[in-house]
């Protein structure tokens, strides 16, 4: 895992600038750094290295291909690099290798097969910049599901990119103009959805895409090389035809292969163990594939309502892992709050960011790489929202569509209270995906707080016209396209990188994802049991009775924090003296109304936290 940066510009001190950009990525790559400047094209590439595979100088970057044509800066891991290396040799590519890094294998593959064929073969998590000196073409490439970040933009006519927004801010001419639409979207979701960023002139490269600039580098072209939507559609049209038992065998095999590939490391490696189905499955397979005890890590909370550490300890004992747990109180959690703007670089309001950072910090004390169980809910129908919403949608459709729309429109205008408003939003929906979005309207304030206007998100094509016929699968796809890459993966990546820890996610392996989309929904949810097939795999390693309990989740007591003690005072100061409101980003009267409504028990703590994270970021990171 590393940090990458670069720009195409000649009218500035290039070496000084790239060193400044690199310095802002120190946490992503504390082990080494490098840069390369090309006088002919004006391209400058920078790299900060977290050494995972091939710890020697042979793995240093920027790295040049053997023939000198390509230069690369690479962030991530290619888990099937050994197979690609063998295939290159089999097809007659006879280059010698200086070291054992996957980066060198990639360069040889690009030299032999070109970009499109190489990217098609790559399995892993990655964000990279590749410069072709012969064709004078710069390519930025991001992994299929968005595990690794990549930001870019044009500033004073010059192109630049980086792993984090903070690095781009070091570029002369970087524009900090706030994007009004991004603020509105952030208030709605608690994150800024891709391809937007909080800045009007800076963007995120979407997962599964290649961005290319050809000399004279004045305009970018972006094309997809893999699509989650297309894979899901293909899976629905060509479903797995075997029995449930055969599907379970195949899923176990694919997960085991993914885990085995992700154990590749020249540094200590471990895993998170929360006590839930997903992490327990990954750890079970890790221990099955490992010849020594797997190191596992859990954060425990003294508040029993939020604590799963006891369950994790029980699972670890059963599997025989080398388990480390750390119990934290409110002080340890609250001490993380001032760090959040610097960790995330733009407003981000998933409050589980706090325990995620703490468990990452715990893991980093003993390992440099940690595997997690993320994506189990989205791929295997784990969220209870899916089944509950399907039932509500079925009942709603008993009423005539026109009557529902009329009632919904009148209800939204009346807006008696938040619950009534959300219900009215739901009545006006044409599809189950629109209703899924409408359920997120926890407060009327979500539309009143932002200053900038925006189009009705319920009219967007992805929610107005579902891609998949199966409604449950459609909701899972919606989360895999939006919530998972823009919230879950951002949270995990930034929390880990803040402490120089590489996170790997076996369930996001290309073969696992494509197989999951081919499975009939009833293999995932049968009307009673969610994650049915994933649980069947787990029960081969951990007794069912050990896992048969309600999941508590990785959350914090926001409402109590924001109404008691020092955190409540901090929140009140930010809400009643909002700089974002003063500068015209939020409506000041509505911010104050939200805070007073929250104290009266009428407004949700999640929305207050969302505003607080925007306000704190704006004060500390946008100076």
Could you give the topology of this structure?
Blueprint lengths: L1 E7 L5 H10 L8 E6 L5 E7 L13 E2 L5 E9 L2 H10 L11 H12 L1 H7 L2 E9 L4 E6 L8 E5 L2 E5 L2 H4 L11 H10 L12 E3 L4 E6 L6 E4 L3 H10 L6 H19 L6 E4 L4 H13 L5 E7 L7 H11 L2 E7 L1 H5 L5 H5 L8 H12 L4 E3 L4 H4 L4 H13 L4 H14 L3 H10 L4 H7 L6 H4 L12 H4 L6 H28 L3 E3 L5 H9 L13 H7 L5 H4 L10 H4 L3 H12 L2 H4 L5 H12 L5 H17 L2
Parallel strand pairs: 13-14, 13-16, 14-15, 16-17
Antiparallel strand pairs: 1-3, 1-9, 2-3, 4-5, 5-6, 6-7, 7-11, 8-9, 8-10, 11-12
Helix pairs in contact: 2-3, 3-4, 7-22, 8-9, 8-22, 8-23, 9-23, 13-21, 16-17, 17-18, 28-29
Give structural attributes.
alpha+beta, 15% strand, six-stranded antiparallel beta sheet, 45% helix, 17 strands, 623 residues
Low-confidence stretches: none
What's the overall geometry?
Answer: globular
Using only C-alpha atoms, the radius of gyration works out to: 24 Å
Q: Distance N terminus to C terminus?
A: 29 Å
Q: Please report the number of helical segments.
A: 29
Q: Please, could you describe this protein's structure?
A:
The protein is of the alpha+beta class and 623 residues long. It has a six-stranded antiparallel β-sheet with strand order 2-3-1-9-8-10. Helix 7 (228-237) packs across helix 22 (510-518), helix 8 packs across helix 9 (277-289) and helix 28 (588-599) packs across helix 29 (605-621).
């Amino acid at each position: 895992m590393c940090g990458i940066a670069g720009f195409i510009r000649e009218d500035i001190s290039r070496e000084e600038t790239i060193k400044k950009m690199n310095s802002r990525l120190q946490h992503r790559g504390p082990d080494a750094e490098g840069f390369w400047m090309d006088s002919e094209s004006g391209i400058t590439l920078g790299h900060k290295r977290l050494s995972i595979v091939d710890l020697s100088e042979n793995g240093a970057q920027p790295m040049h291909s053997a023939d000198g044509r390509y230069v690369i800066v690479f962030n991530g891991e290619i888990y099937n690099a050994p197979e690609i290396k063998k295939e290159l040799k089999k097809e007659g590519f006879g280059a010698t290798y200086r070291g054992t890094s996957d980066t060198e294998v990639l360069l040889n593959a690009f030299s032999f097969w070109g970009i499109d064929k190489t990217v098609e073969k790559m399995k892993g998590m990655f964000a990279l910049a590749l410069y072709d000196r012969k064709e004078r073409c710069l390519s930025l490439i991001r992994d299929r599901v968005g595990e690794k970040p990549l930001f870019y933009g044009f500033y004073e006519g010059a192109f630049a990119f980086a792993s984090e927004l903070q690095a781009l801010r070091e570029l002369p001419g970087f524009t900090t103009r706030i994007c009004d639409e991004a603020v509105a979207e952030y208030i709605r979701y608690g994150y800024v959805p891709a391809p937007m960023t909080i800045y009007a002139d800076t963007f995120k490269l979407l997962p599964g895409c290649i961005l290319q600039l050809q000399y004279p580098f004045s305009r970018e072209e972006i094309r997809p090389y893999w699509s989650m939507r297309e894979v899901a559609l293909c899976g629905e049209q060509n479903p797995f035809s075997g029995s449930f038992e055969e599907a379970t065998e195949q899923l176990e095999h694919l997960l085991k292969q993914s885990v085995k590939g992700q154990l590749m490391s020249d540094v200590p490696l471990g895993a998170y163990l929360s006590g839930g189905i997903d992490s327990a499955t990954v750890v079970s397979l890790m221990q099955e594939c490992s010849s020594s005890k797997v190191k596992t890590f859990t954060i425990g909370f003294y508040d029993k309502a939020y604590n799963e550490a006891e369950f994790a300890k029980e699972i670890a004992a059963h599997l025989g892992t080398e388990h480390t747990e750390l119990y934290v109180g409110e002080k340890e959690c609250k001490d993380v709050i001032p760090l959040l703007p610097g960790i995330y670089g733009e407003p981000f309001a998933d409050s589980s960011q706090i325990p995620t950072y703490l468990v990452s910090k715990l893991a980093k004390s003993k390992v440099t790489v940690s595997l997690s169980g993320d994506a189990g809910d989205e791929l295997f129908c784990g969220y209870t929202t899916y089944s509950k919403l399907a039932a509500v949608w079925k009942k709603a459709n008993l009423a005539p569509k026109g009557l529902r729309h009329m009632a919904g429109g009148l209800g939204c205008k009346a807006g008696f209270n938040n619950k009534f408003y959300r219900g009215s939003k739901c009545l006006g929906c044409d599809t189950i995906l629109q209703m899924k979005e409408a359920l997120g309207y926890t407060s009327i304030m979500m539309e009143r707080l932002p200053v900038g206007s925006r189009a009705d998100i319920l009219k967007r094509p992805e929610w107005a016209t579902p891609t998949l016929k199966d409604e449950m699968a459609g909701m899972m796809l919606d989360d895999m396209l939006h919530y998972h890459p823009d919230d879950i993966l951002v949270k995990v990546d930034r929390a880990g990188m803040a402490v120089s820890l590489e996170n790997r996610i076996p369930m996001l392996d290309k073969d696992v994802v494509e197989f999951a989309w081919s499975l009939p929904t009833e293999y995932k949810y049968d009307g009673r049991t969610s994650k049915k097939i994933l649980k069947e795999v787990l029960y081969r390693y951990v007794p069912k009775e050990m896992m048969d309990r309600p999941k508590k989740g990785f959350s914090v007591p926001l409402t109590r924090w924001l109404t008691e003690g020092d955190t409540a005072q901090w929140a009140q100061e930010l809400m009643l003296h909002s700089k974002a409101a003063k500068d015209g980003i939020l409506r000041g009267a509505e911010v104050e109304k939200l805070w007073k409504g929250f104290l009266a028990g009428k407004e949700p703590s999640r929305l207050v936290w969302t505003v607080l994270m925007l306000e704190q970021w704006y004060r500390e990171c946008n100076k």
